[in-house]
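step=encode ok
step=design start
structure_in=
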């Protein structure tokens, strides 16, 4: 769920400046040496000689809960959260500062910018956590798991690097499985119920809210395999194509597809009534 536009956004960016990077392009090829700004002492300090063991990217990091949690879990790895909504970036930076996590930084940028922000082989992992589904066919290329995006990520991953994708949307997951195959990735592991199969894993607040509504968290890890000689789209582009014919059988409507399912249900109900009237059914 996206953040509402925050008041005093400029002041927030100044207050939590140590967890923000205003010029990420300047760090291309040198993120392993990135240091937080000394402007804000709330997070503590890092030795100038510090070099991070790995650099991981959370693309579409939202409000930063999972990014900060991962940073606290792996203090020798640098986590970079990128989102194109300023309010989300500000809230994420606040979480990092208040948690004292010095190995995490947030950037306001678009997914299409990452080739200019990171050098080839610079990332050990890219997280795609609950990305926007963009259900309509005309918006398919905006999905972060579209094969054109996945093709861009390949060059940024180090040897042995991977992509970790999680979603509450079965239609997006099914679409994405085809995209990973088209882009030449090998799926290392896959689950259609992450909470059930890994009960030891601590859920984020967002995941808990989804599960309380009836969602099952779908997830996979994929790594580049042999690069395909040709990439041709062969998946249905509208996520409507991945929904059941009988929408009443849906136990859960994925976040971002509520309006789509509601409109489809109304159209099908209206079509059924017209058909019945045409047959003289009272």
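sequence_out=
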């Amino acid at each position: 769920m996206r953040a509402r536009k925050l008041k005093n956004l400029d002041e927030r960016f100044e207050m939590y400046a140590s967890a923000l990077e205003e010029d990420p392009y300047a760090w291309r090829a040198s993120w392993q040496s990135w240091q937080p700004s000394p402007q804000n002492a709330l997070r503590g300090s890092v030795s100038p000689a510090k070099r991070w063991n790995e650099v991981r990217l959370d693309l579409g990091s939202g409000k930063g809960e999972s990014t900060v949690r991962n940073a606290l879990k792996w203090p020798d790895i640098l986590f970079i959260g990128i989102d194109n909504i300023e309010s989300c970036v500000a809230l994420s930076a606040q979480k990092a500062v208040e948690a004292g996590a010095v190995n995490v930084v947030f950037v306001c940028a678009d997914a299409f910018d990452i080739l200019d922000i990171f050098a080839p082989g610079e990332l050990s992992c890219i997280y795609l956590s609950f990305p926007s589904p963009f259900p309509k066919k005309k918006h398919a290329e905006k999905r972060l798991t579209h094969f054109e995006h996945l093709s861009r990520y390949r060059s940024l991953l180090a040897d042995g690097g991977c992509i970790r994708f999680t979603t509450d949307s079965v239609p997006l997951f099914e679409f994405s499985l085809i995209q990973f195959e088209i882009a030449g990735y090998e799926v290392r592991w896959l689950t259609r119920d992450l909470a059930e199969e890994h009960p030891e894993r601590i859920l984020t607040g967002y995941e808990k809210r989804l599960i309380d509504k009836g969602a099952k968290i779908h997830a996979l890890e994929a790594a580049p395999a042999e690069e395909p000689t040709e990439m041709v789209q062969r998946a249905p582009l509208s996520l409507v194509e991945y929904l059941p014919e009988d929408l009443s059988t849906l136990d859960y409507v994925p976040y971002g597809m509520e309006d789509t399912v509601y409109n489809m249900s109304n159209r099908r109900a209206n079509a059924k009534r017209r058909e019945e009237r045409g047959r003289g059914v009272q």
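step=design ok
step=annotate ok -> The radius of gyration is 21 Å.
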